[in-house]
Amino acid sequence: MSIDRTEDYIVILIKELLKQPAETEWLEFKHNNHDKEMIGEYISALSNSATLHGKTNAYVMWGIEDESLNIIGTTFKPSSTKVGGEALENWLLRLLTPKINFKFYEVSIDDKNLVLLEISPAAINPVSFQGNEYIRLNSHKKKLKELPEKERELWRAFENTPFEKQIAVENLDDSEVLTYLDYTHYFELLKLPLPENRENILNNLAQDDMITKSENGKWLITNLGAILFAKNLSSFSHLKRKSIRVIQYKDNSKVYTIKEIEGNKGYAVGFEGLISYINNMLPTNEVIKQAFRENKPMYPELSIREIVANAIIHQDFSQTGNSVMIEIFANRFEVTNPGEPLVDTDRFLDTPPKSRNEILASFMRRINICEERGSGIDKIVFETELYQLPAPIFESTNGYTRVILFAHKELKDMLKGDKIRACYLHCTLKYIQSDYMTNTTLRERFGIDTKNTAMVSRIIKDTLESNKISLYDESVGTRARTYVPIWAK
């Protein structure tokens, strides 16, 4: 991966690439041939080959004589090339799956026009163009399915190189690394003293895989270092769209926006400020408990922290152009992250989480941004019951995961589905605490008076009929009945 390049940098890079003795599996030379389908196929082939060979980028260069590698110039101008009225770059991106980062650069060397196409390596799946996956075999472009051994090697490469260890920016000297990363926050969050010299600072960052050294002695910043400790995510071209968005709406719809911000700091650097900003925008609620009333934030801060942290950790970084989105409505709080969950949403509460980004998750736990493994969702549900809020929704929709917290609502105003969902989550929470749901525990969860136990029995009956819970022991009398989640029976 790369940051946005200056023209001087591109000129130097082109001269370095021309030192290659010939085309490679991650480097292609062209004169004027800029057939649009050909370019798309090369993006697929070179991106996949870059991953296979452990390269931080792959390249296509126009204006080069194929055999001699002499600079002869090109008439190709990608910035003004259209495909049926659509910009070439947009057309190519639309037909690539998954969407990856690539960029055309137009420069001049010795009064000759050159074009360099820089392509990011495939991250999680092979990159396809118009439904076909390509790969390079020596200097030839082939369909990946025609080379099964190459395909197996590529999948092994995906398994061996998680997102966090892929490269965000390369070729940096000592001082440049520290201009990109907020290293002081790194030591503060780990409760470590700040080293007195630059060498020890860099060594600490390297030990945690925030940075690594390349063969030429220069530093590379990993995705882990950039996404957590970037001073400004916009400095990294492929991560700038991973900034977290917070949107506050006037009412319960998306028609009128009151505020919208987009964070530009790394997740670790900006997390506490983000949570504080959210809490300051949330309404308060009069919490009614058995013995007292008091005004508290509408949503428990612990729940807010856990939901936001989970969205950050479990997002699918292979989806480009989107990130975690936090939306605040008058009647609810929603957090959406790219990527469908790896666990059934009905089993969020009891199943240990599976993370796409385990290295990221592990570090977030080390710095206490999220709870220990498996306990976060428990706390969200527990806090919801404590605050007597409607049960949260955990849902998967169109390649995204969404969690919704609802503002306080009287039981009489809840829909049947709200009550069933609350009953199921309460039953599951009891079960994982080695306990059972009863009529009494559910009555207390909803704050229902003792004389209205029939209301609770109706909710339990509806939840049983929805096949969400099951009677634990059918031999006991009605008053002593206990219940477990349907999957626990």
Number of spatially distinct domains: 4
Q: Which strand order does the major sheet show?
A: 15-14-18-19-21-20
Largest sheet: 6 strands, mixed
The percent range for strand residues is 15-25%
Number of helices: 15
Inertia-based shape: elongated
Pairing-aware structural class of the strands and helices? Answer: alpha+beta
Note the gap between the termini: 49 Å
Tell me roughly what share of residues is in helical segments.
25-40%
Low-confidence segments, given as residue ranges, are none
Q: What is the CA-atom radius of gyration, in angstroms?
A: 27 Å
CATH class group of the largest domain: Alpha Beta
CATH fold topology of the largest domain:
Heat Shock Protein 90
Would you report the number of β strands? 23
